[in-house]
Amino acid sequence: MDKIKVDNYSTNKNFKITDYETFEDFGKSDKELKKELSKIRRELGEFQDIIYAHGKYSILVCLQGMDTAGKDSLIREVFKDFNVSGVEVHSFKVPTELELSHNYLWRHYLVLPAKGKFGVFNRTHYENVLVTRVHPEYILNEHIPGIHTVEDINQKFWDKRFEQINDFERHLAENGTLIFKFFLNLSKEEQRQRLLRRLALKEKHWKFSPGDLKERKLWDEYQHCYEEAISNTTHEHAPWFAVPADNKKATRIIIASILLESLKKYKDIKEPMLSDKIMANLDSYEEQLQGE
Q1: How far is CA 189 from the centre of its chain?
Q2: Which residues pair with 64 in a beta bridge?
Q3: 143 burial via Cβ count (<10 Å: 0-12, 13-18, 19+)
């Protein structure tokens, strides 16, 4: 299979969802796609060991998408060959009372990856300009000075949030965090089919919520909010990638490939070398161990 072209999925300041495909299979069968992913993720897992040993960069992977976009299974499959001590996954649900007593970025700061590690955000700080924008009444729970009613939450408010998120990510990037943000571009029809499967298959019942249907009715509003959020927050140091999500196997290959190819560009990421003094005494250390 030809190497994935990262630029095909890069976004810009005029991001429009309709400019990007929702389905991809690269002309390959499911079996071939599965084999390709196995190869890429093994290489990605090996590179993760080097990043861990190097210990100077943190990797933050942000996953956003509509309900049923496949975030959970993507995390399971893409990071399967990682050393478990080198990757941490965090899923951000409805904010707790404690979280609401702090600023909206607080809970995200708490779980940022340490140097040498990957952090995966399953839903991210962008929920604060997506879900809360579609449901601005949620903002009132944050008890922000000057915000008393929904009418106080205007375009200026959202522009300020985009600015705050940009500042947050710029601060991370300037201190050694490599940021990758993925929008899983799911079609409305594919979402319908996946929701139907959740209803049809007993083992998937736990995934279904009547709330999914309520949110589905707001599809167009969410699409608009995604476009505006991505347009305002895609930067070279914190890029957004729009990845087709109707075919999960292809989605996983694309994301794994983007991570691998992008990280390989950092030529300073290498296994640390032993000091000259230690290197000069390797034979002596070996003799000591052999003599025990």
Answers
A1: 23
A2: 183
A3: exposed
Q: Half-sphere exposure of 170 toward its Cβ, with a 13 Å CA cutoff?
A: 9
Residues 6+ apart with CB under 8 A from 226: 17, 64, 130, 183
Q: Which residue in 178, 160, 184, 155 sits closest to 235, CA to CA?
A: 178
| Res 276: pLDDT | 86
SS (H, E, C) 165-232: HHHHHHHHHHCCEEEEEEEEECCHHHHHHHHHHHHHCHHHHHHCCHHHHHHHCCHHHHHHHHHHHHHH
What is the C-alpha separation between 6 and 255, in angstroms, rounded? Answer: 9
Q: What is the mean pLDDT of residues 264-279?
A: 90
- C-beta separation of 181 from 62 below 8 A: yes
For the stretch 15-33, pLDDT in tens is 999 999 999 999 999 999 9
60, 142, 61: which is closest to 94 by C-alpha? Answer: 142
pLDDT tens-digit map of 102-130: 999 999 999 999 999 999 999 999 999 99
Please give the radius of gyration of the chain, using alpha carbons only, rounded to the nearest integer: 22
* Rounded to 5°, angle at Cα 151 from 148 and 154: 105
